Amino acid sequence: MENPICRRKKTRARGWTNQKASTMPDGSIAITMIDTIVSALGDKADYLLKHTSKTVSKDALHLPGPDFVDRIFAPTDRNQRVINNLQRIYNTGRLAGTGYVSILPVDQGIEHSAGASFAKNPAYFDPENIVKLAIEGGCNAVCSTFGVLGTVSRKYAHKIPFMVKINHNELLTYPNAFKEILFGKVKTASDMGAAAIGATIYFGSDDAHREIVEVAEAFALAHELGMATVLWCYLRNPAFSIKGDKDYHLSADLTGQANHLGCTIQADIIKQKLPENNGGFKALNTGGSSYGKLDERIYTELTSEHPIDLCRYQVANCYMGRAGLINSGGASGKNDFNEAVYTAVVNKRAGGTGLISGRKAFQRPMDEGAKLLHAIQDVYLCKDVTIA
After folding, report:
1. Per-residue pLDDT tens digits for 155-165
2. To pair with 136 at 20 to 30 A between CA atoms, which of 68, 175, 213, 295?
3. How far is it, in rounded angstroms, from Cα 13 to Cα 15?
4. Does residue 271 have an active-site annotation?
5. Rounded-to-integer distance, Cα 187 and Cα 217, Å
6. Catalytic residue among 271, 273, 348, 360
7. Distance between CA 206 and CA 236 in Å, rounded?
């Protein structure tokens, strides 16, 4: 991935900006953010950047902007300390004052095991390097465990907003189970100076009822103590992966409903995986089974097969954008930079609020991880990437 501001003797990508290219004294052309984004998207550039959504109108959405906290949260029942911490999050890092957020999450030491997560870059066994990466990467906040953030809180909690992930699924129970359990107290997060807490609920699982009640109580206490709340609205049920069909854990209709439940327990920001398909409710209502409720207009009017429209349905279920939707960056692989830009473009054009990307950033040297985070942020800073 090239730096967004670089010099190269080449023709700029055409059709994406009204700004004129800057010609350098040596005859080369200054490459702008949109050029880099187009390059990263490759043959998907037109498909994503020229798409016009005909599903949920962008005019019906509460879109990110410099006044997002004043416009969206000031009228709510959140107390002044919550408003202050939300304002701090939205006004930190390279995206400060835009209404968008870029968050570094590193809770994988528990969720995926420390060895599996940090073997590629053992420096991140040290909690301080996690916080340093978030700062170098220009993030709005750093999200990690009680242990990680508590270890360095007196040194860094005033320098970058802390988001304490309060529950986890640990992988030492044999056989592995999938149950989110609390690893500490909400007050502990408050005492270390955290601006927010985060939690996961496995919607659709046999443990979901307990997790909903537990997290709802934790979020109410967090708000009382002045902290913002962020919910990982993940689906978890083996029945959602239908052999020979699709993995409906990534279905727009099911993830959208998970988002709606997350907003119901007053999550200020919703984290969700980018949808890859649709029709989960339909697929689980076959063969004489009965599951949930649906309306055909979900599929004929409120969504299409386009990834931006699928993501927009997720945004719509976040109270039309009143709770900001941040999509996850996913696992690290061979094309991390391009995949990160792709996800950011889909999220932004759908009306989302940003990205929360961890493994793609910390499973590489710190300078490269910071560049990847900057590449994500450049999508939200680029005025040529508009709402579809």
Report:
1. 999 999 999 99
2. 68
3. 7
4. yes
5. 13
6. 271
7. 9
